[in-house]
Write a structure and sequence with these properties.
This is XdhC/CoxI family protein. About 30% of the residues lie in helices and about 25% in strands. With about 375 residues, it is α/β, with parallel strands linked by helices. The chain starts with 12 loop residues before the first helix and ends in a 22-residue tail after the last helix. The relative contact order is 0.09.
């Protein structure tokens, strides 16, 4: 498979979306495997996806690698048959599938030919808008078949034309509360819904646009942050002060490079709620102006500020002298010194600290050690 990542198994969601779009645009066949239900523990949760192309190539991961072989075989069968199916893998049975896994979960995987029924969701994401994909994965209603699908846009109305039958209006109405709940938590879950002619299990998969990491600066330490940010799945934007390095070739790991003034950095923010900013120009005035602009003119949830606490206190003093006041909620968005406490001063490890903190904030986590966390590693999705 043509790919620009050295290990297709390690692909990010952003790369997976891009590959799906490219295959649809080029009319290249592919199967999409998606985890739609998990009982017990599993390496990945509902919504995890993997692309399979004719033959043995796959792109992305839905397990630690133990099921990829059987899933690829089943996906090729789905491509031959031309219709969707759901397969259950009982990993608690060490003899199941002849793999001797002895894991602690049961996983349901939806395997389907890639078509425009998913393409309409990809279009919404490309336009920086969320989409909710509802797919029937089991049904006793004669009017609903496995694979029937409706994609909802931000206003919860159906999007675009589809290559498949849409779900009945009755089913969508019955799923409205669940859909709203999963939109709120940006989650995925299979729910059982009653219809006038039976019942159907519907996989509700809420998809958010790829988050963007906005780096304000043009010094050498931008490079490792940009590279790691891209590696973990952010779209990376570098905002460089006017008159400084601002050519795309100067920052090869960035998806886009813009030249701006710190008081206009808000213009570089495409979707505020989906942007995580790091101010690292090493220029006190530029960082102070950029910080003021982001806090006053945008709702970005995270503004990492490079430098020691004393530097930030000096900025706050100047803000007070200029009668610039911030609310507690605005100040809570500021993280300085930026990054998680990893105890290192090497540039690449500082970058890892910064990107890890941005990712933790994105996932609504503190970034602490998992051994200190009570309960499951992955949140269990609750719906009405």
């Amino acid at each position: 498979m043509d790919t620009d990542v050295p290990d297709p198994w390690s692909t990010t969601t952003a790369e997976l979306y891009r590959t799906l779009r490219a295959r649809l645009d080029d009319d290249d066949p592919a199967a999409l495997a998606t985890i739609v239900d998990v009982e017990g523990s599993a390496y990945r949760r509902q919504g995890a996806k993997m692309i399979v192309v004719p033959g043995d190539d796959s792109y992305g991961s839905i397990t630690a690698g133990c099921l990829e072989g059987p899933v690829v075989d089943l996906a090729n069968a789905v491509l031959d048959e031309g219709r969707a199916r759901v397969e259950t893998f009982d990993l608690m049975d060490g003899d199941e599938w002849g793999l001797g896994l002895g894991c602690n979960g049961v996983i349901d995987i939806l395997l389907e030919p890639l078509d425009d029924s998913f393409g309409v969701a990809l279009e919404a994401l490309a336009n920086h808008e969320p989409a909710t994909v509802l797919t029937a994965v089991e049904s006793s209603d004669p009017d609903v078949a496995v694979g029937d699908r409706t994609v909802l846009g931000p206003d919860r109305s159906p999007l675009g034309d589809s290559d498949r039958n849409r779900l009945p209006t009755e089913l969508l109405s019955n799923a409205s509360d669940v859909t709203a709940s999963l939109r709120e938590s940006a989650s995925a879950k299979t729910v059982r819904l009653e219809t006038s002619a039976g019942s159907a299990s519907v996989f509700v998969d809420h998809l958010e646009p790829v988050p963007e990491l906005l780096l304000f600066g043009n010094q050498n330490d931008v490079h490792p942050v940009a590279r790691l940010g891209r590696d973990v799945g952010f779209r990376v934007a570098v905002a460089s002060s006017r008159g400084s390095r601002s050519d795309e070739s100067d920052f090869p790991d960035a998806h886009r490079v813009v030249s701006t003034h710190p008081t206009e950095i808000d213009d570089a923010v495409r979707t505020p709620e989906n942007t995580y900013a790091v101010l690292m120009s090493h220029n006190f005035l530029d960082d102070r102006l950029a910080l003021e602009t982001l806090l006053e003119e945008t709702s970005v949830p995270y503004v990492g500020l490079m430098g020691p606490r004393k530097r930030f206190e000096e900025m706050r003093t100047e803000f007070e002298q200029e009668d610039v006041q911030f609310s507690n909620s605005q100040l809570e968005r500021v993280s300085t010194p930026v990054g998680l406490d990893l105890g290192s001063d090497e540039p690449i490890q500082i970058a890892l600290s910064i990107v890890s903190e941005a990712l933790a904030v994105r996932n609504d986590r503190s970034g602490g050690r998992l051994k200190a966390r009570e309960g499951p590693i992955h949140e269990r999705v609750k719906t009405p």
